[in-house]
Structure formats: C-alpha cells, structure tokens
Amino acid sequence: MDLLWYIIGASHILGAVIFARIPEKFKPAKTTVKKALKNNWQTTKKGFKHIKKTRNLMLVIGAGIFASIALMAEDGWTPLMVDTVGFPVESIGYFISALAAVMIFIPLLASKIKDEKKALMFLTSMQLILLLGTLFIKEGRFIIAASLFVVPEMFRGLKRPILEHYFQKLIPSKIRATTTSIESMIYTGINTVIVIIAGALMDVFPIQYVIGCSSIFFIGSIICFSKLKEKKQKN
Q1: Model pTM score
Q2: Which long-range contacts (CB under 8 A, 24 or more apart) does 185-192 make?
Q3: What is the DSSP letter of 167?
Q4: Regarding the domain with residue range 40-226, which homologous superfamily does it belong to in the CATH classification?
Q5: Rounded to whole angstroms, how far apart are CA atoms 69 and 12?
Q6: What is the pLDDT of residues 45-89, one digit of tens each?
C-alpha cells in the first residue's frame, strides 16, 4: 500500500513539471478590479437567465441533482466492502487503482453513441437497478459486491461525457464558461448538504441500505431525461 502513495506523489510531480514547461500564450485584457467584478456579475446574470429560460438545461441540472442524491452514500463503499463483505483491507487500494485504470478508456465509448437521450436514460436505469442490488449483499460475496460497485461506476464514467456534451451544446459560447460555473456551484451546494445527511444515515442504518435506498432517486433523473426535447441552440 505504501508504494501507491509514492506512485501518486510522483504522478503529481510529473504533471506539475509537464504543465510548467507549456508556454502560456493567453494575455489577459487590461482592466480594473471594479470593472472585472461588474463584468463578471453581468455575465453571471445572463447565465442564470439562460438556464431559467432553457427547459432542457433545467432538466439536465435537475437530473444531476437527483443523481447526486442517489449517489450520496458512495463514500460508504469502502467500509461496506471491508466490514460487511469481508474484503481484505490491503486489497482495497489495488482494487480501486485497477478500476481507475479501466475508467480511462470507458469514456472513449461515448463517441459511438448517437441518441444521447436514450443513452442517458438507459445508463441511469442500469445504475438504479444495479445499486438496488446492494440491499442484498452478504458477507463473503466478493465478486457480487465488486460487480455492484464496478459496473455502475463504468456506466457513470460512460454517462459523464455524454451528459457534458449535451449540456455544453445548449449554451451560447459567450456565456458557456459562466453557465458551467453556475452548474458546478449548484452541485457543490447540494453535495455539501447531502454528504452530511448521508454520513448521519450511515451511522444509524446499515451502509448497504443507505446506498441501495438512496439510488431510488435515479428515478428522478430518468424522468428528467425522458422530458428532454431536441432543439438546436444558436451560438
């Protein structure tokens, strides 16, 4: 396990060295702090206004909020695997590292998907069905438990670039960065609250029940995706 920390540390250092050698060509416009803040506020208002008037954007963000609630207990997987299933503690790091390696290639499959709406509904439905299976995990069922963790994560990794592409094409280029920041701000606020709630629930109820029952909120995501209507946005 100690070796993994050295590998992770080396990867961060290598990444920093690579980025440090990349020439910076961006030249910020000359402005004052007051003007920059005023311009940022105006752009932020445009971003909120665009989200409010664009039904599909509201639905995508709504689907994301439901998904965040559905996955609120995801930090409970490690204690679930170790305490409930009996997975060896020393093997958890290798298991997660192997999953991370596989996840590098999963998003590449997204480029093959043509119907984004159907794909999002299908992948979310599979996440729901599989995570409900955690309700029935028993001690010693290593393969079943690992599958119920890995496969939904693979679907999640495949869904992310599809959803991101769909989200970005709904936003005019002039306010794309600001609108994306607003989306991140919304999710951060939601996650800050639900993580605390999830922790409290996992202290009271078995972790597998919290993971399984919270996945029901994926139904909200599926409903939101089902209401999406294809409409080209002008940049």
Answers
A1: 0.79
A2: 186/61, 186/65, 187/64, 187/65, 187/68, 190/65, 190/68, 190/69, 191/68, 191/72
A3: H
A4: MFS general substrate transporter like domains (1.20.1250.20)
A5: 31
A6: 888 898 889 899 999 999 999 999 999 999 898 888 888 888 887
